[in-house]
Fold this protein.
Amino acid sequence: MFRTAKRVCLMLILAGGCLVPGIVVGQSNPLRDTLSVDDSQRLDFQQDSVVRNASYVTFQEGTEQSVLNQAEEVDPLRVDDQASVDVTKTELEGEVIDSGIIIDEGVLDGQVLGEDCSTGFCATRLGICADGCLIPCPRIQWERYTIFSGVNAFTGPLNRGGQGSFGFTEGFNYGRNLSCIGQGRLSAQLGMRATQTNLSGSDVTNEDRKQIFLTAGVFRRADWGLQGGAVVDYLHDDWYYDLDLVQVRTEISWQYPDSHEFGIWMAFDSDHARTHSLVGKVNPVTVTEEWKSTDLYAFFLRKSYADTGVTGRVMGGFTGNKDGLLGLDLSAPLNEKWAIEANALYLIPEEGSATTGYSEEAWNIGFNFVYYPGCRSTYDLDYDKPLFDVGSNGNFFVDRK
């Protein structure tokens, strides 16, 4: 674990060092300035609009007057959680809220700002919360999440040259801004994925296969210049064995103003594991083996279309075992709240088909429906949208040590 911690720290330091020039460029980025003035794909706040959920503080007991946060000047490209920003407060009279638009006289009618955009249960007409919450109210900022579910098919050395694994997958990915680091230009992400495959057993065992992937790390998105980050992936694989592995994954790319992007992503083994497995459906044999994640190096070209929300990437590279890599992935909106994602990655084994190539071959194919909750839509251009996919069988390959 000490070696794992050292590798993680090193990757984060390298990623941060590489991104510092990009941070400086981003501050004077003409594209960022242009988009902040006129971009139909970004949120556009009017000067006389409420841009934050209302928060109420009663002046005196028994009065109906409240304080509402006044609209502040906000960078439309950075409209994440800026609760720490000091804002000027103005006194508003009357029942608070409905449509979320301030009347000429500065009076609000109805209930709390845009029910569809509410990020907390306090932002509804609750009697106890009408003029300020007297008890802690849960607040979940759903616009920071993406939730996905779909099907997955894959194989690798753990399948021992037999049939592949097919089944279902589901999980979430979460991203938020780190306002206290890197002048607010860095973001963090956290995600989880679960898979259920081989539901009818396989030629190796009668057991079904269950996996859990966890991913956490930091990243920076850019309009123009360096973009990248690093995450740590954890895998728990429960089948005819019980396996736990860790890898570090990093990505560095150059983003062009026309939304073309060229870069490289890499994955490095960080923790090994030894398994004692029962192999065979009849008269099973106990086998002791050591496993590790495969080191991956993949160059990619990615293209995004702001008008349609479609993003595609093609990639090719090699592994630390001199195997080849070919892959692609695609994301496309279906409507404001739903999108589809498809991905495929093939590991071409160094061993030929005449030897043990069939048992060393690895590939993954996935198809997911993705849901965007809260105020966020599939067309939003969001700096805090997770840069990395959650760990999966398409970016976490396993081989014998």
User: Anything to note?
Assistant: The CA atoms of residues 98 and 106 lie 14 Å apart.
